[in-house]
Amino acid sequence: MERKIGELGELFEKTHYQRQVKPKTSSTPICRQDLDPAFSPKSQVTDYLPQLTILSATLLTSFLFQTTSSAALLAGIQAFHPIKAQVGTNLCLQANSNAWGTAITLATCNPSNLYQLFAPLQDGNTASTIYRLQNGGSQYCLQLTEEPADGQILTQGECTLTDGTGRPVSNAQFNTSPLRLPNIAVLQSHIHFKDSGYCIDAGDWRNVVIRKCNGGLQQKWTIGF
Known about the structure:
It is a single chain. The chain is an alpha+beta fold. It is built from 3 helices and 14 strands. It has helices at residues 2-21, 32-35, 41-76, and strands at residues 81-85, 91-95, 104-108, 117-123, 130-135, 141-143, 152-153, 155-157, 173-175, 183-185, 188-189, 198-201, 209-212, 221-223. Strand 12 and strand 13 form a beta hairpin. The protein starts with a helix and ends with a strand.
């Protein structure tokens, strides 16, 4: 009898030892409960709740930050609008092709015509009144091709330097001081990064030209609306 009990004890110890150190080798996935009978999935979830809460809060904060950043980025993109003359009847600036140096003219306003739509690109800080005006059809900006003079034709050209730096071209800069856009304002050439004293003028109501700034209606434009 004693020998039988001893054999049973050895068998129990051997079986128990193998259960603790030798995992199952079948193709059935091993659950932690197979190796540790004391394991409780419910208690483990409870233990990790603080970490899960922190992780969820972190992910939510990250999502909100990215969404807010995206919204801010989109808000910073300038919309395209007509540049409407304060003289004449419903006349807007228009680029007539995709070619560099094309003359800018006045035409009956047509909001569906991309060549009549311009985006004000603000240079400097948010308080700046210096802008480049990029056309929606050609992607060029309004520009002066030479030193300003009375009667010079307004054309279109590069918005930035062609050296890859992305720096603005001063020929394409205009000062709307003292007003920031959107507004009804004059557009004074800022060629050589300084005020020139010459403004965009409605001319003969067809060909848009540069003339000495005089503050008259011929030189006032509705921009950014």
